[in-house]
Amino acid sequence: MRILAIAAAFALGATAALADPVEGVWQTEVDDGAYAHVAIAPCGAKLCGTIARTFNAGGEYASPNVGKPIVWDMVAKGDGAYGDGKIWQPSTDKVYRSKMALSGNTLKVSGCVGPICKGQTWSRAN
Q1: Domains of the chain from N-terminus onward
Q2: What pLDDT sits at residue 69?
Q3: Which run of H or of E encompasses 113?
Q4: Which pLDDT does position 19 carry in this prediction?
């Protein structure tokens, strides 16, 4: 029984050690008067982000975008680089080809639709 408990502890430790450093909650920049907290987590072998909370000048509010995916199909490339993903900009309802660059508690997110590219710098919220 004790051996089983030790094995379980190692398995849980290994799972935590394998978590990608970009996983967690990120605060977006203000766009069209509002910003969001985005929860980034694995979705299969890739990474995805879902709008977890939304805020405007009055504080937290119940946006219809809460629970919607904002980043998907992101692939870790190594050294804090992510690519091959998509990102949705709620204020314009456009989906961009996307990449991300992680540096400490800062996540630079950028995306392009044809020749039009946009970017934001997100901050770790937790």
Answers
A1: 21-124 (2.40.128.520)
A2: 98
A3: strand 106-113
A4: 80
DSSP 9-75: HHHHHHHHHTS-TT-EEEEPPPBTTEEEEEEEEEETTEEEEEEEEEEETTEEE--TTTT-EEEEEEE
Distances (CA, A) of 1 to 4, 9, 14, 115: 5, 13, 20, 61
Looking at per-residue pLDDT, the higher value among 54 and 15 belongs to 54
Q: Is 97 strand, coil or helix?
A: strand
Cβ atoms of 98 and 110 closer than 8 Å: yes
H/E element, 4: helix 2-17
Quote the CA–CA distance of 104 and 29 in Å, as a whole number. 17
For a pLDDT cut of 70, what percent of the chain falls above it? 86
Contact, 29 vs 121, CB < 8 A?
Answer: yes
